[in-house]
Amino acid sequence: MGQRRSNPFRGFVDVMSEMNRMREVGRGSYDPGYEDRERTQASAWVPRADVFARGDDLVIRMELAGVRREDIEITLHDNTLTVSGERASDLDEVTFYVQERFYGAFRRSMTLPSGIDEDRISAYSDNGMLEVNVEGGAVAQSRRIRIGDKPA
Question: pLDDT exceeding 90 applies to what percent of the chain?
Fold first, then answer.
């Protein structure tokens, strides 16, 4: 089992997107016209991701099966890394009996430790997996705050 490190990444999940996804899945009902509405941050699907340290590097690995490399955009703004894009459906005029895969716009945002250099981030896609490598991103250390006595 790998070495345990403190987790400096808070607010990893784009909360609005994740809550919307959970509500849609939990509702379990088909919403006619849902696909025809404009996709927004709140209605985009959220791809599954693993975040781990490989040495001093932070690695984000995302499942993006069926998404073409040219349909993926990765941006960094104010220490927030965002992976967004779209998975197009090639199934026109079909009747689904079961539909478990999401199509359309997706977005996943996470806060990186401060001081990350944009030039030290690289990404590649292979067999439906996107891997983003943040060089030196896993070395952020948390600092323990001592709790003292109440002042008199």
Answer: 31
Q: What is the CATH number of the domain that holds 118?
A: 2.60.40.790
Beta bridge partners, 133, equal 59, 122
Q: How far is CA 67 from CA 20, 51, 70, in A?
A: 21, 20, 8
Question: Domain tally for the chain?
Answer: 1
| Domain span at 110 | 15-25+40-89+96-134
Asked if residue 31 belongs to a domain, the reply is no
Residues of the chain with pLDDT under 50: 10-13, 29-37, 39, 41
Strand, coil or helix: 24: helix
The confidence score (pLDDT) of residue 10 equals 47
Q: CA-to-CA distance for 124 and 63, rounded, in angstroms?
A: 12
Which residue, 58, 68, 44, is CA-closest to 125? 68
